[in-house]
Amino acid sequence: MASNKPAPEAPSRFHPDYGTGYGAEFTGEFGGDLRTDGNNAEPERGWDEWNPTEESVRPVRGRHRVAKQRNGLARSSTVLGVGVIAAVGAGGMATAQGKPPVSISVPDSIADNLPDAKSLPGMGSLFSGESEADKAEVAAAAAPLTTAGITTAEVEQGTTDAGEALRARILQQAEQQQDAAAAEAKAAQEKEAAEKAAAEAKKQQDEAEAKAAAEKKKAEEEARKKAEAERLAKLAASYALPTFSYTITSTYGQAGSMWSSGHHTGLDFAAPTGTPIKAVHGGTIKSAGLAGSYGYRTVLELEDGTEIWYCHQSSIGVSVGQKVSTGETIGRVGATGNVTGPHLHLEVHTADGTGIDPMAWLRGKGLNP
User: Fold this and answer.
1) Are 238 and 367 in contact (CB under 8 A)?
2) Do 259 and 224 share a domain, yes or no?
3) SS3 per-residue string spanning 295-362
């Protein structure tokens, strides 16, 4: 870094050596107008304040050269300002304790709005008649830094160390967080248990409802069967099987070459010749006599138009137009017509003449051949 000779200081009339040897140092520099005879006489020309200009002060070379100002401010004003503030602050702090106090006067307009000194924290003890609260404030203000931040409650508990108080607060906060976490976990467990209990209760309720529905359905089915049985029993009282001591040898629709139609058109009750034949229900005798391959045949017409054909009889015990009742004997089992042995050939025809299964019709009337 380049080293430059600093500009000379201007002599001051307030310096204790002004006009003596101190001034002689500057005789050559400022034109020899300053007297050096030791009489401290005034110079021949008056001195005003010294205002150095760019022309009167030799320029400084190197990095410390003062830059030309632009709009009244130096380009490096920020750096110089920071340096000056730092220097002044350091010097001020170093010498502030050795200086006498300076009295400060405050305008009345400001003094009237200032708060009462006694109301300021820690100032009550400076005035007479201080209260207990003021004493407490003063004690708190005068307390060591190790007690800073301790609450009143902690002081009452005997806490005197701020670090210990902070440690206690941290431990208390950690304990509170643990308690909160435990409470949250407990609440979650209780919620899960409640949901599980609710699901189990719902499952049990669904099972109970399903069981009740099944039992109800079963009861309804049993009731229906019972009602049907009662109906059939009542109906059976008005219907009867056509004979007794029999054996079913051929059923309706059974195929075979012995039948001219290629299949059996009725229901065969094999029984000994002369076995009584009964009226299955009350009705009117529509026809009675020999009918070709059917042998002796009796046709009983019921009230709904249904016709019951009794075939292959050995004898007929009724006549056309006769009214008969349920279970009344109307003929005897025989082997007349196209047969291989004594039996009753029974056929059932609807009102329009269509032949149907005698077995199904008898069962529909509550009978079981």
Assistant:
1) no
2) no
3) CEEEEEEECCCCEEEEEEEEEECCCCCCEECCCCEEEEEECCCCCCCCEEEEEEECCCCCEECHHHHH
Per-residue pLDDT of 72-115, as tens digits, reads 444 445 545 545 455 555 455 545 555 666 666 656 666 666 66
Identify whether residues 211 and 258 lie together within a single domain: no
Query: Does the global pTM surpass 0.70?
Result: no
End residue of a domain, out of 170, 203, 237? 237
**pLDDT of 61:** 55
Which residue shows structure tokens 């201007």? 10
Specify whether the CB–CB gap between 298 and 330 falls below 8 A: yes
218 and 255 in a common domain: no
Structural domain count, the chain: 3
17: which residues sit within 8 A by CB, 6+ positions away? 23
Same domain, 296 and 229: no
Q: Give the model confidence (pLDDT) of 319-331 as tens digits.
A: 999 999 999 999 9
Same domain, yes or no, for 275 and 224? no
**Whole-angstrom distance, CA of residue 292 vs CA of residue 207:** 67
DSSP 70: B
Q: For residues 254 and 325, state if they share a domain.
A: yes
Q: Is residue 174 a part of any domain in this protein?
A: yes
Which of the two residues, 170 and 68, has the higher pLDDT score? 170
| Segments forming the whole domain that contains residue 192 | 160-237
Domain at 253, CATH number: 2.70.70.10
Rounded Cα distance, 118 and 126, in Å = 8
Tokens of 99: 């200086």
**Please, are residues 314 and 333 in contact by the beta-carbon 8 Å criterion?**
yes
Tell me which of 185, 208, 237 is where a domain ends. Answer: 237
Which residue type does 220 have? Answer: E
* C-beta of residue 316 within 8 angstroms of C-beta of residue 335: no
Q: Are residues 289 and 204 both part of a single domain?
A: no
Instruction: Return the closest-CA partner of residue 277 out of 300, 305, 252.
Output: 300
Q: Which residue from 78, 349, 356, 365 is spatially nearest to 241, judged by alpha carbons?
A: 365
